[in-house]
Amino acid sequence: MDKVVATALETVADVPEGASLAVGGFGLSGVPNVLIQALFERGVSGLSVVSNNCGAMESGLAVLLAAGRIGRVTGSYIGANKEFARQYLAGELEVELIPQGTLAERLRAGGAGIPAFYTPAGVGTQVADGGLPWRYDGSGGVALASPPKEVRDFDGTEYVLERGIRTDFALVRAAKGDRHGNLVFNKSTRNFNPLAAMAGRVTIAEVEELVEPGAIDPDAVHLPGIFVQRVVALTPEQAAGKKIEQRTVSVPAARGSVNG
Question: Kind and range of the H or E element at 65?
Answer without folding.
Answer: helix 62-66
